[in-house]
Amino acid sequence: MTKFATFALALGLTTSTALAGGYVEPVVEVEPVVVDAGPSPSSNAGLVVPALLLLGVIAAVASDDDDDDDDTN
Q1: For residue 40, what pLDDT is reported?
Q2: Taking the complete model, does pTM exceed 0.85, yes or no?
Q3: What pLDDT digit, counting tens, does each position of 45-58 carry?
């Protein structure tokens, strides 16, 4: 029984020293992030699709072969 009491006393002493300091939450300082809002290189990307559509319409009109002169015979 004395061995058990010695073991319990040693366990109790180590437990109390492990919790002696308490918990202190670490302080983390965060630096603000600065974003440079310069002009983006793709600012004219919105004009590419309409320009290609316009070129497609122009090409379709230019290649229209509707000759009415051949039908008069």
Answers
A1: 61
A2: no
A3: 678 888 899 999 99
Compute, in degrees rounded to 10, the torsion defined by CA atoms 5, 7, 9, 12. -140
| 53, amino acid identity | L
- CA dist 67 and 73 (Å) reads 13
- The token pair that represents 29 in the structure block: 């300082």
25 pLDDT more than 80? yes
Per-position DSSP letters for 12-35, written without gaps between them = HHHHHHHTSS---PPP---PPPP-
Both ends of the chain: CA-CA distance in Å? 128
Q: Is 8 exposed, middle or buried (0-12, 13-18, 19+ CB in 10 A)?
A: exposed
Largest CA distance in the chain: 129
